[in-house]
Amino acid sequence: MIRRFALVLSLTILAPALAQADFVRNNLRFTLYHELGHAVIDQLSLPVFGPQENAADTFGLYLAHRIHSEAEMAEIITDMTALARAEALTEFFDPWDEYMPGAQRLARAICFYYGLAPEARLETARVLGMPSASKRDCADDAEVTARAWAAVFERMVPGPESAGAIVPAREGKALRVLAPDIARVNGVMALPRPVPVVQTTCGEDNAFYFEVDERIEFCREMVDALRARSGR
Fold it and tell me: Is residue 30 in some structural domain?
C-alpha cells in the first residue's frame, strides 16, 4: 500500500512537468516545420499563390503528417491550439500583418489537420472546435493542398549521399529538444543546400528563416516563453 501510494504521488508530481515538456516540444516542432517550409519555397523557387505564411503553415502540417504517428499528430495540434488561444488573449489585430488573424490561422490549421486523415481525426478536430458543416470543405481543400506538397516531396527524396534538409547547431535548448525530429526530417527529405538551424538571443519570443544565408534561427527566449504559457 505504501509503495502504491508513493507511485501515485510520484506520477501526480511528474504529470505537470511532463505536460509542460510535451507542450514545449510540440510547439517547437511546428515552428521548425513552418520555418523549413519557407526554406523549401525559397530553395526550390516554388510558386506561391497567396501569402507565403499560409503556405508555410500547410507545409509544416503536411510534413508533420508524413513523419508523426496519429497519437503524436493529435498532441501536436492540441498543443498548437492551446498556444494559439493563449496568445489570442493579447493579440492586436492588424489587417496589414503578413499573418492572418490568430483565430483564423488556428482554424485553418485544425481544418487542414483533419482533412489530411478525416476518418482518424474527426473526434480530435471536433473537440478543438471544427464545426460539422466544415468537414467536406476541409477534406476537399486538404486533398488539393496535400497533392501539391506531395509533388514537391518527390523532388526532395534523399539519396544515399544526401546530407538531408537540416544541419542543427550543437548548442541550444530548442535544438536539443528537436534533435529526434530533425533526424526524422532528414530521413524523408533533402534540399539542394541543407539549412543550418541555430539558436540565438533575439530579444523576443520568435523564430525566423533568413533567405540571405538560408538559415533558420530560433530565439533563445522561445523555450522560456513556451514554458510560461504551458500553464495556460
Answer: yes
